[in-house]
Amino acid sequence: MKISIDYKSGFCFGVTAAIEAAEEELRVNEVLYCLGDLVHNSVEMNRLADMGLKVISYEEMKELKNEKILIRAHGEPPSTYELAQKNNLEVLDFTCPVVLKLQQRVHTAWLEAEKIGGQLVIYGKPGHAEVIGLNGQTKNKALVLSSSEDVHLIDCKKPIVLFSQTTKDEKGFYEIADKLKNYMNDEGLNPDENLKVHNSICKLVSERVPQLQQFAAEHDVIIFVSGKKSSNGNYLYSICKEVNDNSFFISSNQEIDFQWFNNVNSVGICGATSTPMWLMKEIADFIEKSAN
Ligand code: SF4
Fold first, then answer.
1. CATH topology identical between 2-9+204-291 and 100-165+168-201
2. How many Cβ atoms sit within 10 Å of the Cβ of residue 203?
């Protein structure tokens, strides 16, 4: 049985930069605080916790004073920076540059929309850290939609500006855009004038889709490795499953069922933008030693 790893899987540069910064800091200091999970992968988070990384919530941050705190790639709303200043916290800001730019675009677009009584809409997962950061740019006045089924919540008589969380899928994004155009046409409004569509999905995420489809089609069985909380992981797994029904989602090698490999010639191992390469290699070694 041949086992291959998809070397295009694994951390994106935004996540890599934040992890390297945490590691560097923990080489000289015993403790570093991080607001929320640095990466949606419990195995990697346990490794960093062993090095001294302490993940705290917003509530815990309110009590933290005179310490250093790392802001992860997802970014934060302005209120977090205000709280850090109030509590004399030194901020190591590792907001991904792509997310930072998007925050600025959302802020500018929202100011423009406010002037003309318009509405800013974000296609994203409500409560996701990046979405909280983006919505903070609009004083939390943006409407967050998790699917095109919620389009009826938008008042289509107002001018609309549409953005996306960077890790969402293009299919869902354009479904929302198309529905909005249809609603506007039904209302006798010109979508060209009243609807601005900004596809702000990260290129690393959208390009992964055709790459993964090809990888999933080339193997008999796909082992997709990701933390269960990762929205990017759940989405990319669904892409593999669509192409190859023998795709299995695992977070660690303990979840492997060796029945999956009966009469199988090739196994492909891949993962999300939050999956460490070392974990995919470890899983490949484990399958190799146990199944062959
Ligand atoms: S997926 Fe893209 S936007 Fe998100 S952290 Fe990675 S590089 Fe940045």
1. yes
2. 10
Atom of ligand 1 nearest to the CA of 204: 2
State the catalytic residues: 130
DSSP 220: S
- From the CB of residue 143, how many other CB atoms can be counted at a distance below 10 Å? 16
Domain boundary assignment for the chain:
2-9+204-291, 13-97, 100-165+168-201
Could you tell me the distance, in angstroms and rounded to a whole number, from the CA of residue 224 to the centre of ligand 1? 19
* 236 Cβ closer than 6 Å to some ligand 1 atom: no
42 pLDDT more than 90: no
Please tell me if the CB atom of residue 287 comes closer than 6 angstroms to any atom of ligand 1.
no
Please indicate whether residue 204, judged by its CB atom, sits closer than 6 Å to ligand 1. yes
Each residue's pLDDT tens digit, 72-122? 999 999 999 999 999 999 999 999 999 999 999 999 999 999 999 999 999
* Nearest ligand 1 atom, CA 98: 3
Residue 210, CB half-sphere, CA atoms under 13 Å: how many? Answer: 4
Give 100-165+168-201's CATH code, choosing from 3.20.190.10, 3.40.1400.10, 3.40.1010.20, 3.20.20.80. Answer: 3.40.1010.20
* Residue the block writes with tokens 């705290």: 56
